[in-house]
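assembly run, all chains below
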Amino acid sequence: MTLLRFSSRRTIAAVAAFAFSAGGAAAADITLNVASMNDPFGPAMAKIAGDIEAKTGVALKVDIMGYGELMTKTSADFAGDTGGYDIVTMDNVLTGQYATSDQVIDLKPLIDRDAAELALDDIYPAVMNSLGGYEGKQVAFPFEGYANVLVYRTDLFAAAGLEPPATMQALQAAAIKVTDRDKGQYGWVANGQKGPAVAQDWMQYNAQLGGSILDAEGKPAINSEANVKSLAVYKEFFDKAAPPGAVDYDWGGREESFRQGVAATMQTWSVGAAAYGNPEQSKVVGKFAVMLAPPGEGVPPKYGVGGWGLSINKDIAPERQEAAWKVIKYLTSAEGQKALAEVGAGGFTRKSVLADPDLVAKFPFLPVIAASFEKGDGDYRPRIPEYPEIQDILGTAVNAVLAGNADPKAALDDAQARALELF
Amino acid sequence: MTIDTAAVAARPPAPGLLARLFPPDEPLEARRRLFLILLTLPACLYVAVFAVYPAVRGLGYAFFRYNLLKPQRNAFVGLANFEKLWTDPSSHAAIVNTLTFMASAVTAEFVVGFALALLLWRDRGFNRVVLALLLVPVTVTPLATGLMFRGLLTPDYGPIGYFARTLGISAERGFLGTPETALATIVVMDVWQWTPLVALILLAGLKAIPASVLEAAAVDGATALQRFVTIVVPMMVPTMLLALLLRLIDASMVFDTIYVTTNGGPNDATNVLMIRAVKEGLEFFNIGTAAAISAFMLALVGVLATAFFLLIDRYERTVAP
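ok done. output:
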């Protein structure tokens, strides 16, 4: 009698526990950790987190960081296989590194599976490739695309009788003409600081002038004739048209120089364009225009593409990967992109969003971005695994020319030798 | 079964845990030593696990080509990383700049700091207020210091930089943008920030000098300079060496200020070992190269610390009555 009574009670408890557990599992929510760069899309993503949860059933914890911290934390997470972050915002220049180090999952199978709902034709091919495509893999889905554009002061150009520059040579001539050192007015500004800042800016100008960091076989060709010439042009810009402090500017200094009216022209990522019209940040409100970045004379126009994709950590559980993919699909959809744009994300990937009447009214420069993406080039900064080291090598070489008056060819010859050691 | 109660009663009680650890018949000193060893064991284990082991392992990485993101290339390379430290132009410049910075900044901080300490020696209300104000820079992070000076010194619109450029005091590109003046400018920033700390340390040493000794010397007719040379300086030597050592160690690891102002430029003019180490380790994830740089810096600091402690010890042995 006693044994029977005990067994019955245990059975009842076990059944109850199972029922409770099954019910709990069915109702459980997933919270994903996102490692986000502190570009405008980071705060924007955090702002619409509630909507994201409502649309996807997934809560997001967005960890917004500076570039260095983002690289350090995510790389440590990947290397240690700790799975601390589920979704990572990936700088497009790191595509090759992500693709060859087995850090994130290849999204291609998921893209193929859900192709019907992704409206892939709506995404610019240059953006799709640049922000995550690498040798047949898609290690990130395009999330926030940036176009390299030229911003210039319409009032100063009009006063000088200048037309918007259609070529790099015209830009240089205009910049020199507009420069008046006695008045503290300079015609142009770019990054000159040793390191990533000067390297990235020079690579952009280099591409526009017909240069390339790699040869057709994907090996360094840093000291090519075209590159040497473009570096000489870049130095001439600095010597004749840039603010004196530009040799030490990074992105902050460069942007501030234009916003404060010190520099009349600047090539920049489109993500910052809205700030120039903000009276709280800018002294050039109503005095500037955004246009396509001018190519060198005789050089077929290609426009720099940069920005960020969304990657899924390979170390997280399959159900978390599926939830992450669900979030990515929403954030990169036309609906999600528009929601992000409306709260100031600043980046774009889709044709329909860039043509949206409401957004165009709010951001009149969107057609320029659209035109840039049509002929986009995301490889002027080579997205190979060795990119960080090459960037550093170039940063040293170009800065040596600007600040140390080194000979362009000698500097690039040295850079070439150092780059070859990486392969 | 029967129990021999008498035998049980006669059996001595089993020794307790403490008695087994500290046998009563052992000498007191031995028991004390063992007790102290047991007390420090947790701390030693902590240090061994979280300090010694990582340091040794980190040193081990210095002999490998080891990249976190490119594991397929990892291999033992012996002393190649250390060789590269000397042969690579950028790394070589970093060594030279680091040593130059250490010597320049610490010397300036010591001289100015000692002067400040002498000025503030008298214990007066005004001096205490001045000392409190002087310590403000020490409370500012080096990162904030760098950002502040960058704003001040930019030749385009900085309050100092603009006028310096306009008046021809600085080059057109400003103090930080000109290779010839960039490192010196970083030194000035470091001196501004850390001299008060040196002054504070030296002031503590000055206040420890017995007033009676100085008064007696004055009564005996010694001049201020004689008292300074024959009493103050000799009695201050240990404190001086300590202040110098602390600053040298800190100066060898200068990073934040340079990172936010020049990032090692212009043209490697302010490239220092810590900039190289952070770049190699946290940007490129070349752990082997970064470990070699760290090992070199550790050796440098170790040599300095050893030399200074030997100097202090020798001085105290020589001067002590």
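Chain A has two domains: 31-146+306-375, 148-304+381-421.

Residues 4 and 403 of chain A are 91 Å apart (CA to CA).

not gonna interpret more than that til we talk
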